[in-house]
Amino acid sequence: MAVGVAIVGATGLVGRTLLRLLHERRFPVRELRLFASERSAGTVLEWCGERLRVERFAPERLRGLELSLWSAGAELSRQYAWEVARRDCLVVDNSSAWRAHPEVPLVVPEVNPEALQQHRGVIANPNCVVIPLTMLLKPILQRWGIRRVVVATYQSISGAGQRGIEQLQAELRGEEPPVRVAPWGIAFTTAFHRLDAEGWSEEERKVVAETRRILGQPQLPITATCVRLPTLGAHAEAVWVETEQQPELEMLRRHLGQQPGMVVLDEPAAQRYPHPAQARGSDSVYIGRLRRDDSVPAGIIGWIVADNIRKGAATNAVQIAELLLFGGH
Amino acid sequence: MAVGVAIVGATGLVGRTLLRLLHERRFPVRELRLFASERSAGTVLEWCGERLRVERFAPERLRGLELSLWSAGAELSRQYAWEVARRDCLVVDNSSAWRAHPEVPLVVPEVNPEALQQHRGVIANPNCVVIPLTMLLKPILQRWGIRRVVVATYQSISGAGQRGIEQLQAELRGEEPPVRVAPWGIAFTTAFHRLDAEGWSEEERKVVAETRRILGQPQLPITATCVRLPTLGAHAEAVWVETEQQPELEMLRRHLGQQPGMVVLDEPAAQRYPHPAQARGSDSVYIGRLRRDDSVPAGIIGWIVADNIRKGAATNAVQIAELLLFGGH
Question: Which CATH number does B3-126+313-326 carry?
Fold first, then answer.
């Protein structure tokens, strides 16, 4: 039952975390091959005591492997994902390339595992804001109904990858960063993802479209403002959910605490709540600050935090692979 | 027409900014006296080339002065504001002590200057989130009507005063901070203001209550989540305004740009938007990211940024004093 696995984009933040997760989760690996762009090929990464040399990606080089985990950008995925899938190598793609495609399931294992039954070899891993958000919304949707969702994000600059972290570190040292992913700086200030001419970031459009798709609610009224911060370790989200029925708060806390992968951390009198430094390195989605929203007939307010590189990306991808290959792990 | 002025709480972040503003705005000062707690008394501050020694506060020491600007915490204001006001020294109080009192006007000069006509000697300066928020909401309320407001704040840790900045700086140096205003840290993470047993922070309750009062809309549906960040220079707010009529975006931009004290900085295609480092040191409220909210029948989304120590506190207080004494300046 051991599997030949490729990591495509192995030298990036998510790629390196995928490597670590295969070990941590005792994923049954027969053979592990690492791929990256020409620029990063030749890099040596350690895995379980072995030293693995990163190869330049080419689709034919994945021959004989059953699974590939991709985190190398949308362009590469758009170009090669189906070519690799046609050769019986499953593609779990962390990029946004195929997330809207009707023949590509977009999956959060705790939320819509049934979507995997329809796959044709390529499976899309959702956006890092969307994964924790749908994990909060699904149990609310099923039990109390949802009328509208408002989301304000508090995202780590690590969402822009290693370059984002390097920009923050350089600015904190008072140096010019090698690359600017936040055009006006990120140390001590906020930034937005690249905006289009209509005033929206692609990130905000993803939150709307992917959340609707995963929840199976194509008309769900949902609106988002996505903000990048000089934080590390996790993304946070302030969420307002207008519901059909008013959830009783203690019941809501109990219900959310029973969901797989979710941890309720909500003891206001003790000042206990989730925050990025606390959630760093965890695979759980943390929820706190649960309050009744008195500005609507029925609604609740919450605050979710999850490691954007792990559950927001790499962990979710490995969970998808586990479901596909072993029906859970 | 020159005035005898006291600054109560002169050594704090807001106090020092008040000192600077009296000079910058050429406030007609006849005599300037500085007061602080016993701990800070004796500190020497420079003002217009003069060296001023900070005195220990006692209400009788303000005798003969016509104006006092207070930023020394709610407890001192609760205890002494009226005693000072009764001796014909106007009190403009930056603390939250009197903001809900029916005989104390709560004033943003650009929004509800008429409230000053009813004063009895004590005037309250609103919360730093509320001042820019009401400046955005008032023109929308008057022209398009408001049904509900959702606010997510992105607040500088400087809102906790010099101690907040020192905690951030110490953590960035890898040192234990002298005082923890953010119990779980603030460098690279987020924090909340102190939460009560119901799960709300006083800051969030202030945003609701003070916004309603200043806008004269005691029933306005409004909800807030207030978050502290490792940012400096300004607070930011993501705001969703459900309106009665749908504002046309270009008209909204033009209308907001005509409001005193407000600057529209909203060129998404050029990635131009307000952010804390950009607004630092300015007395303006910046608005950007204006978008139509498609999740409601009529509504807009915006992003406001304002220097929390200046327009969010000190500048607004000096503007109130100018209106009181000179009918504007």
Answer: 3.40.50.720
Contact present, A249 and A291 (Cβ < 8 Å): yes
Contact A189 B276 (CB under 8 A): yes
Domain ranges of chain A: 3-126+313-326, 130-308
**How many CB atoms are located within 10 Å of the residue A254 CB?**
11
Bridge partner list, A153: A237
- Nearest residue on chain B to A190, judged by CA atoms? B275
Residue B7, SS3 per DSSP: strand
ipTM of this complex > 0.90?
A: yes
Q: Do B301 and A223 touch (CB under 8 A)?
A: yes
For residue A122, which of A329, A326, A328, A324 has the smallest C-alpha distance? A324
Contact A148 B229 (CB under 8 A): no
Domain A130-308 in the same topology as domain A3-126+313-326: no
Contacts B296 to A, Cβ<8 Å: 148, 221, 223
Residue of B nearest to A222 (CA): B295
> Given this structure, which CATH class describes domain A130-308?
alpha beta
Query: Using the beta-carbon criterion (under 8 Å), do A295 and B150 form an inter-chain contact?
Result: yes
In the annotation, is A119 catalytic?
no
Residue of chain B whose alpha carbon sits nearest to that of A196: B269
Could you read off the pLDDT tens digit of each residue along chain A, which spans 329 residues? 899 999 999 999 999 999 999 999 999 999 999 999 999 999 999 999 999 999 999 999 999 999 999 999 999 999 999 999 999 999 999 999 999 999 999 999 999 999 999 899 999 999 999 999 999 999 999 999 999 999 999 999 999 999 999 999 999 999 999 999 999 999 999 999 999 999 999 999 999 999 999 999 999 999 999 999 999 999 999 999 999 999 999 999 999 999 999 999 999 999 999 999 999 999 999 999 999 999 999 999 999 999 999 999 999 999 999 999 998 64
- Burial per residue of B59-69, b for 16 or more beta-carbon CB atoms within 10 angstroms, e otherwise: beebeebbbbb
Q: B227: which chain A residues are within 8 Å (Cβ-Cβ)?
A: 154, 236, 238
Question: What strands, in cross-sheet order, belong to the sheet with B90-93?
Answer: B55-56, B29-36, B3-8, B67-70, B90-93, B122-124
Our answer to whether residue B128 is catalytic in this structure is yes
Mutate to test the interface with B, among A157, A158, A190 (most CBs of B within 10 A): A190
